[in-house]
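no rush on this but wanted to send it before i forget. theres a chain ive been looking at and ive put its sequence and its fold in token form underneath. please have a look and point out which stretches look like helix strand or loop to you. thanks a lot i owe you, the record is right below:
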Amino acid sequence: MIDLIAHNLAPIMFVTVMAMLLIGYPVAFTLAAGGLLFFVIGVELSHISSEIRLFWPLLQSHPERIYGIMYNDTLLAIPFFTFMGLILERSRMAEDLLDTIGQLFGPVRGGLAYAAVLVGALLAATTGVVAASVIAMGLISLPIMMRYNYNRGFATGTIAASGTLAQIVPPSLVLIVMADQLGRSVGDMYVGALLPALVIIGAYCLLVFAVTIIKPHWAPALPPETRTLGGGVTSLVLLLVASVGIYLATYHTVFAEMRSEVRLVWAATTATVFALALSLANRHLKLNILSRLAEQVVIVLIPPLALIFLVLGTIFLGIATPTEGGAMGATGALVLALVKRRLSFSVLKQALDATTKLAAFVMFILIGARVFGLTFYGINGNVWIEELLLALPGGEIGFLLTVTVIVFILGCFLDFFEIAFIMVPLLVPAAETLGIDLIWFGVILGINLQTSFLTPPFGFSLFYLRSIAPMKEWKDEVSGRILPAVKTTEIYKGAIPFIIIQFLMIILVIAFPGLVTHYKQESTVNPNEVEITIPTFGGGSDGGPAFGLPGGLSGSPFGSPPTTSPGDGNGQQNNGLQLPGIGGLPPLGTQPGDASDAPGETPQEQPAAPDLSQPPSFD
């Protein structure tokens, strides 16, 4: 029995720790306690099984491993982006965005649903926190949707799904942690995830459009009396065209001498400042050039879009690292809140408290994962996991599909931090052995975790929405009507179409890796066609001097004295470096007095070897 336990200690440890996590024990303490407990067991069983490589002095490595977490610059981006998102959320940016975009799409059927999807994408690109996005949109948008007779299941599903976009849209915290655990660049992870994220947003909008065609009464347009900003889309389009023209003109004229990425930044900044300045002047100077709708859309949308460009644009262009981009984003969020006069001491304190709690949460999970990992690797658990995964049928595709199912199931019970710190390091060796691009692998896992946030009955996004959706009949203060409660089953049913979209997106990314691997810089040089020619000390093959030096380096490395070729009527000298008065060195491989003449040729007198025992004569 002891022998059986010793030879199967790795699977016993893995199943035991995962079972404790699923029961609900605190993650950090469960990982650390499990690691220490099985370390003791492993040391005691190390004399039975040669697969166990644990000994007591190995515990002394833990302090250095923990310090290694604190030295990790990549993880600094987590508190920066969290702080940025919390400041923007508490400065009521989501409220302004939902109101303005809702007015913009108001005349269209499903306009509030389109607004929820687009605002969810904007919040994802600025906050990166699912809970903040879902709760903010649920509190603001859900009552309005219910007021204007939206189907409750469709409304709740749209809000919950749009909130989960924070899992995959850069600067997602999931992508930061995934890049760190995969050992890859956060910038590459952001670039790789951008196109799948845009496809998901487009698929959500297509679903809303399909609902408005098939079930138009589920998503009616806003009545005319609620469109407080009126019309005026034409002036908004004209302003957009003018801004694009200014961008192109300045890009090719004013900033033409700059590097391409710097030109892009300054040209885009110039066009944006023009649109914002015109809108502000139109509002405060009563110019009446723009409609109220165009004016409000520009003033509300440009600050968060500028912040997104400040963060993601500088990272994609290689101007800033993700950590530096996070720091700039946090500073920009403070500036925006200050300009809107919504930055107070209480808001700042709440944001700092929440950021500190999240950073400490991540740090303790990482410490527990390091303790767990040392023991698990010491009992060859990584080898057991790798062999198990490589034995799956189907090769690369079979591995990806199996991992997708496992991570999806775990995502229904565990937070993405726990999955990233526990499971991902165990999956990396098998993925590398199969030749899977790790950025591609990380994006697949990110979309998978986004799907798990939506899946009943344990989807975290559904829980967040359930916590703020009305659980009993309530009176709408605007319309004065008594509106029904939102049932939990309605929230679950509304999420199902979006879950299907997520699954289809995972299959699409697996089938077409180019959606992610476009982050790689294509090389224009074929390494198979590169020829490397090593020059010799003598003349080139064409008789020219070697190494491009005057006279070349023919014969010995020091050259030979100039001689006149026999029978050469023009008396042309041989190439060589001439040393004054020392005389020539003998050819390599000959001795003084040796004759190397070919048969039938007149023997030639060899030059006398210099007497190296005497000082040189310069006569």
Notes: Residues 1-71 form one domain. Confidence is low (pLDDT under 50) at residues 522-527, 537-602. The beta strands are 474-475, 482-483. The first strand starts at residue 474 and ends at 475.
